[in-house]
Amino acid sequence: MITGIFETHLNVTDLERSHHFYETVLGLPHAYMQKERGNSFYWIGGKGNAMLGLWQKKPSEVKRQHFAFHVSLEDMKHAVAHLENKGIKTQNFLDDDIGELYVFGWMPAVSVYFTDPDGHSLEFIAMLQDEAKPELGMVPWSQWEEMQEKIV
């Protein structure tokens, strides 16, 4: 019955600042805004596919959340540079410097983490077409790719 998540909401402290971040920095198409109600909506994956809603709240009502945006593998190859060129600090799963991204062997998928202006933890994640290897845990992306080349 359930085929996906259509909509999720985040509470933010400054709607205009967040609008700039999600539309200009991340490139999400703006769908609708109700300034009088303090909300704004953005399409994810194209009109009608999925939606993110932002709601302006008092700082005490903003609890940090986490969610991931699915991106293509090709886009993931450029994600760190894209984000850093926009002034966004990036991290890998281990929260260390961005020296290398890691693959979650059980999926398999590679991801990069960053935060929005309210400190929400955001992630770009790209699924890999390789066979899952949960026994590996997490491995650096370069190591994963070397292992895949040996298999082929």
TrEMBL record:
<keyword id="KW-0560">Oxidoreductase</keyword>
<dbReference type="GO" id="GO:0046872">
    <property type="term" value="F:metal ion binding"/>
</dbReference>
<dbReference type="InterPro" id="IPR029068">
    <property type="entry name" value="Glyas_Bleomycin-R_OHBP_Dase"/>
</dbReference>
<dbReference type="InterPro" id="IPR051332">
    <property type="entry name" value="Fosfomycin_Res_Enzymes"/>
</dbReference>
<protein>
    <submittedName>
        <fullName>Glyoxalase/bleomycin resistance protein/dioxygenase</fullName>
    </submittedName>
</protein>
<keyword id="KW-0223">Dioxygenase</keyword>
<dbReference type="InterPro" id="IPR037523">
    <property type="entry name" value="VOC_core"/>
</dbReference>
<dbReference type="InterPro" id="IPR004360">
    <property type="entry name" value="Glyas_Fos-R_dOase_dom"/>
</dbReference>
<dbReference type="GO" id="GO:0051213">
    <property type="term" value="F:dioxygenase activity"/>
</dbReference>
<feature type="domain" description="VOC">
    <location>
        <begin position="4"/>
        <end position="127"/>
    </location>
</feature>
<keyword id="KW-0479">Metal-binding</keyword>
<dbReference type="Pfam" id="PF00903">
    <property type="entry name" value="Glyoxalase"/>
</dbReference>
